[in-house]
Amino acid sequence: MGRRTDRLHDLTGKPLHQEIRGGLFVLRHSLIEVARDASLFGSIPGSSERQVVGPGDHLRNSLTDIARTCQRDYVLRGGTMEFDSTGALHAIWVRITAATGGGTLVFGPKTASSGLLLLDLSVDDNVAVSIMFRDVGSLAATYDVDTDITLIGLLSGAPTELDCNAWAVVRLRGNACGLNAENSRSIAGDNGLTSLYIRNYLAGDAKEIRITIKK
């Protein structure tokens, strides 16, 4: 399975909507073998019993660690889950449900041997989840009106540049970041109606970006 996340020169100079949809195309095809036959936000076929990360727990895994196990399904219930990008050639799909107590998801810096992680996040009612990306200058969230899906982490850098350095993407159902015409850039679809919103978040001196999701 090929990965072209670092070699997308053919997209340079293209309009913003083409860059974004090009990024979605590359991401989708990079992960097609990982998520094949698995419905969005559904259970993962053949997965082990769901691991609970509760209050006081701090679970840290690299992509290599995850690839060595069958554990792809978690319940975040007040703890912290930290993901290390180490795992060259790995494209991993993980499902997390944030239940009572919520918690924190941390994505470490990209390394020279980074793989690719797609994380499907479901958030129960009245639950808050903090999503932190470390060692980043900027981060983008997109909301696709047509599919009713939010992606966090797909784009970075200037608003018109495809992020070739993203190694982790969080996917949520609905407009999880509350993107709209007032706080985001809107991109019209073929029918002339807005079909995609994009918002860039800038990091401070700490080079960390934290986004809180609450239902």
List the helices and strands and how they pair.
Layout: H1 16-30, H2 32-35, E1 51-53, E2 58-62, H3 63-67, E3 73-76, E4 79-84, E5 91-98, E6 103-107, E7 116-123, E8 128-134, E9 138-144, E10 149-152, E11 168-173, E12 185-188, E13 194-202, E14 208-214
Parallel strand pairs: 1-3, 2-4, 3-5, 4-6, 5-7, 6-8, 7-11
Antiparallel strand pairs: 8-14, 9-10, 9-13, 10-11, 12-13
Question: Descriptors for this entry?
Answer:
215 residues, mainly beta, 5-stranded mixed sheet, 14 strands, 39% strand, globular, disordered N terminus
Overall structural domain count:
1
Q: Tell me the series of helices and strands, N- to C-terminal.
A: HHEEHEEEEEEEEEEEE
**Major beta sheet, specifics?**
9 strands, mixed
Helix proportion of residues, in percent? 10-25%
Widest β-sheet, arrangement of strands: 1-3-5-7-11-10-9-13-12
Query: What is the tally of helical segments?
Result: 3
**Class from secondary-structure proportions:** mainly beta
What's the Cα radius of gyration?
Answer: 17 Å
Q: Residue-averaged pLDDT, rounded?
A: 77
Strand percentage lies at 35-45%
According to DSSP, the number of beta strands is 14
Q: First CA to last CA: what distance?
A: 36 Å
The shape is globular
Query: Residue ranges: pLDDT <50 for 5 or more in a row?
Result: 1-14, 30-39, 157-164
